[in-house]
Amino acid sequence: MTTLISDTGTVFSRELRPVLRDPFTIIFSMVQPLVFLALFTPLLPGRDALQWFVPGIIVMSCLFASSMTGSNLLFEIQTGSHERMLVTPLRRPALLIGRALKEIVPMVAQAALIVAVCVPFGFRFDVLGALAGLLILATFCVGLGAFSYTLALAAKNQEWVFWTVQQTLLFPLLLLAGVLLPIDDGPGWLRALARGNPLSYVVDAERSLFNGEIWTTATLGGLIAAVAVAALGVWAGVRAMRRSD
Amino acid sequence: MIQTRGLTKHFKDVRAVDGIDLTVAPGELVALLGPNGAGKSTTLRMLTTLIPPTSGTAEVAGYDVVRHQREVRLRIGYIGQGNGAGHSQRGRDELISQGRAYGLSVRDARTRAGSLIDSLGLAEVADRRVSTLSGGQRRRLDIAMGLIHAPELLFLDEPSTGLDPQNRANLQEHILSLRAEHDTTIVLTTHYLDEADSMAERVIVIDHGRIIADDSPARLKAEHVGDRITLGFDAELDAAGAAATLAPLAPQRRGNRLVVTTQDAPRRVPGILDDLRAAGHPAAEVEVTRPTLDDVFLVLTGRSLREGGAAETRELVEV
Ligand SMILES: Nc1ncnc2c1ncn2[C@@H]1O[C@H](COP(=O)(O)OP(=O)(O)O)[C@@H](O)[C@H]1O
Ligand SMILES: [Mg+2]
């Protein structure tokens, strides 16, 4: 018999298979953030720049990837294969989680690559903390992937709506979480907005976890934010699937 | 196998399906026939749990389509109007993951995929990207996907649309053999008259979201249209005399031709010819026209089902 986990595995491996059969695109996209890192880090002040910036870059590439969950879906909604999958007994959350994981898992591999490249340049990290950090990040991104899926369902007849909303939301989300530039010195209203952004807590947690500070309130905050976003995203996605016509 | 009561679906102000009561027994092969926009797909989408009804109920394979979606999904197969197989995937991979979705083990899914690939003649293309397949190959792959778990009830939405006649015939043969070999209950939609006519023992004619007729093709034709016997005479005078002789059959006369509408025409023609000769108005020629399902649709709705049927409509109405 099937379970939620085996269903998720079915969806995940179906999604991943074309990528594995044609790995060049993914290899290319893995190198991209390294270029970004090489060009951006020298601009940051202080000797700890890498320490601060690397976790942020990892969050960013995961975020970009998982927010794309819905874009593959758009095509499959048009051709009919999404409909075919909806008629199978696959559990609805598995359809969301499996697709989101397909975007996220390669990004975890990419995180390892980024870290490996940065270590010779003085990046220091804690293995256990980093693993915990990636787990929290993956949870958050499942939620984001589920929202992306929901957005694709809502915008299925107007593809441009998907792209517009995705782009419009993603950048403020990133900037307001202090991924690329620190928020701490910003004006009060900006800091208030950042406090309302669940991603801020995840980013803080990543930085402290990569530094080896595991049992902290930052970790707890990141975990709560990630679980909340994941739960909300899956709930919204399942609801959208039930209502979509 | 299927039982609906007042099944209805409204999209904003469009009444796509408007109160359908339908009962399908196990082992039946039923065709839903109707023009584009009649509500065939919407009906199928409700029966397959894809969309909830606005009102009414439907029980499929013993379970309510709203309250027990999972139970329904486990028991049915659905081949939709689009392409079930993802275009960036390979056919065999899709079949295996479809099997996994229905709870088959990897090994069973692989075996089953292999045998469906063989029986649907997909061996040469099963390991290619779906986007490189021809329309007919893709459609056969879709059928294979719908059959992976050997469902007891199979829904097919316009299975042969877009196929050339050769592929269409092959597909129909496959569907019929499914029925013969596995006793699968089959509900398909079509707007091809000949397809409904030749495949289904039961045709349900749908128009504007309602069932307007439901019977075997033969009985639909007999009941709503009947056969047409056209008799030609050498002179108008003969035609007039013949009309009097055949008065009980209520013939219609146009010039030196008579048209009689009746059931079972081929058996009646010899008798009619004898009567006419005996009355001294022998027919010079005779033609028997058996009705098509399009004639049935025309009688029921005043419109033709054929593409660009407007001209034909006028012509037939005159008769
Ligand atoms: N998702 C939808 N949203 C709005 N209207 C729809 C939708 N699906 C179908 N319709 C409308 O419902 C009617 C029936 O459509 P459909 O069931 O697809 O007909 P058929 O399959 O018989 O061609 C049509 O008028 C169609 O435009
Ligand atoms: Mg249709």
Could you explain how this protein is built, in words?
The complex is a heterodimer of chains A (245) and B (319). Chain A has 245 residues and is mainly α. Chain A has one domain. In chain A, 78% of the residues lie in helices and 0% in strands. In chain A, helix 7 packs parallel to helix 11. The radius of gyration of chain A is 18 Å and the shape is globular. The two termini of chain A are 29 Å apart. With 319 residues, chain B is α/β, with parallel strands linked by helices. Chain B has twelve helices and 14 strands. Chain B has a six-stranded mixed β-sheet with strand order 6-7-8-3-9-10, with helices on both faces. Chain B has a four-stranded antiparallel β-sheet with strand order 2-1-4-5, covered by helices on one side. The longest helix of chain B has 18 residues. Chain B is elongated and about 80 Å long. At the A-B interface, helix 1, helix 4 and helix 5 of A face helix 2 and helix 3 of B. Adenosine-5'-diphosphate (ADP) binds next to strand 2 and helix 1 of chain B.
Features:
heterodimer, A: 245 residues, mainly alpha, 78% helix, B: alpha/beta, Alpha-Beta Plaits, six-stranded mixed sheet, four-stranded antiparallel sheet, 12 helices, elongated, disordered C terminus, binds adenosine-5'-diphosphate
Structural class of chain B: alpha/beta
User: What's the overall average pLDDT of chain A, rounded?
Assistant: 90
What is the chain-wise order of helices and strands of chain B? Answer: EEEHEEHEHHHEHEHEEHEHEEHEHH
Helix content of chain B: 40-55%
Helix content of chain A: over 70%
Note the total helix count of chain B: 12
* Chain pair sharing the greatest interface: A-B, 27 and 33 residues
Rounded to an integer in angstroms, the radius of gyration calculated over CA atoms of chain A is 18 Å
User: Which descriptor suits the 3D outline of chain B?
Assistant: elongated
- Name of the CATH class of the largest domain in chain B: Alpha Beta
Q: Outline the low-pLDDT stretches of chain B.
A: 308-319
User: Could you tell me which ligands this complex binds, including any ions or cofactors?
Assistant: adenosine-5'-diphosphate, magnesium ion
Q: What is the fold-level CATH name, i.e. the topology of the largest domain in chain B?
A: Rossmann fold
The CATH homologous superfamily of the largest domain in chain B is called P-loop containing nucleotide triphosphate hydrolases
Number of domains of chain B: 2
Q: Using only CA atoms, what is the Rg of chain B?
A: 24 Å
